[in-house]
């Protein structure tokens, strides 16, 4: 499968530890036209019940720790932003947290979330 990728395709690999249950990366917004401050990673909970993700952290690719009291409802979505105020202002996304450290590599990278 990987050999069939077009040369300009980007590879983003998600690493999740086994105890992250229903946490899934559902969107990676890299290289936004208005600049790096509008980068974000969207995560969702595909488990049938709420998931307390307090203290979960992105530790590779970008650096961000979910604040205490962060509960992702079943089917819920949360956007982790490079600049949360800019993302809210430009895209109108209210369910956003941030700011992560680093930037998303436009050439592809591994994003790792740990608990």
Structure description:
The chain has 115 residues and is mainly beta. It has one helix and ten strands. The chain has one helix at 84-91; strands at 12-16, 23-29, 40-45, 51-52, 57-60, 64-65, 71-72, 77-81, 96-98, 109-114. The strands form three sheets. Strands 1-10-5-6 form a four-stranded mixed beta sheet, with no helix packed on it. The chain has a four-stranded mixed beta sheet with strand order 2-3-8-9, covered by helices on one side. The protein is globular. Residues 1-19 have low confidence and may be disordered.
Task: Give keywords.
single chain; four-stranded mixed sheet; 1 helix
Report mean pLDDT, rounded to a whole number: 86
Alpha-carbon Rg, integer: 14 Å
End-to-end Cα distance: 30 Å
Beta-strand percentage?
35-45%
- Strand-pairing-aware structural class: mainly beta
Total beta strands: 10
Low-confidence stretches: 1-19
- Give the ordered list of helices and strands: EEEEEEEEHEE
Number of helices: 1
Give the overall form: globular
- Tell me the strand order in the biggest sheet: 1-10-5-6
Instruction: Report the helical percentage.
Output: under 10%
Characterize the biggest β-sheet.
4 strands, mixed
């Amino acid at each position: 499968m990987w050999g069939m990728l077009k040369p300009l395709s980007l590879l983003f690999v998600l690493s999740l530890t086994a105890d992250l249950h229903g946490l899934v990366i559902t969107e990676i917004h890299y290289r936004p036209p208005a600049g790096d401050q509008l980068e974000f990673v969207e995560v969702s909970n595909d488990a049938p019940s709420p998931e307390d993700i307090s203290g979960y952290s992105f530790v590779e690719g970008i650096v961000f720790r979910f604040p205490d009291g962060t509960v992702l409802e079943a089917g819920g979505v949360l956007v982790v932003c490079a600049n949360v105020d800019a993302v809210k202002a430009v895209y109108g996304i209210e369910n956003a947290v941030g700011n992560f450290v680093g930037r998303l590599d436009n050439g592809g990278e591994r994003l790792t979330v740990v608990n």
